[in-house]
Design brief:
The protein has 202 residues and is an alpha/beta fold. It is 46% helix and 11% strand. Strands 2-3-1-4-5 form a five-stranded parallel beta sheet, sandwiched between helices.
Length: 202
Amino acid sequence: MLITGAPASGKSELAGRLAARYRAVCCSKDSIKEILLDTLGSGDAGWSRRLSNASFSVLFEFAPLLCRAERPLLLEGNFRPGEHERPLAALLSAAGAQLAQVLCMATHATRAGRLAARAHDPRRHPGHHDAHPGTQPAAQVRCAADAGSEAGFLQLSGPRLAFDSDAPRAPQLAILYTRLDAWGLACINIDPPPATHASIER
């Protein structure tokens, strides 16, 4: 399962919920990046982007090992359409695995507010340069502003599900759980959602 979307679109929180519900192995690009920041040091926004690239490379390198665990694998990060399809396709082919994508979205105003808050949050690593969202890939920024856009999804086979973090959380989670359960994931930790069965598959 892939949790993707623009920075500050709600990926990390959603990934935590899904990992707990489905007892999934969760691998986050930002977690890798923070290890690199602590090891190699922080720099300017350009350096942050280079470490993001390196973090994705590490994630793609070790994901096949994580696929050997007898648990679902959840990869979380701002994956880039047109760039990350090839390594993910190779991973899926080698593991004989299927992929569901969940695209987190939020309005520009919501994301700007979250990024501003992160820039002053002592728990957030300063090496991310959250105060400079303009350094993010344009396609990822656009996908958050247009909830009807396909721009943020990677061109890979499998279900494509949208999660609007500006909308009320409980109904959105209910819809998402319903679709993922139907896709074949086995729920381990029950977090009962409200009764709704509307589809959000693209």
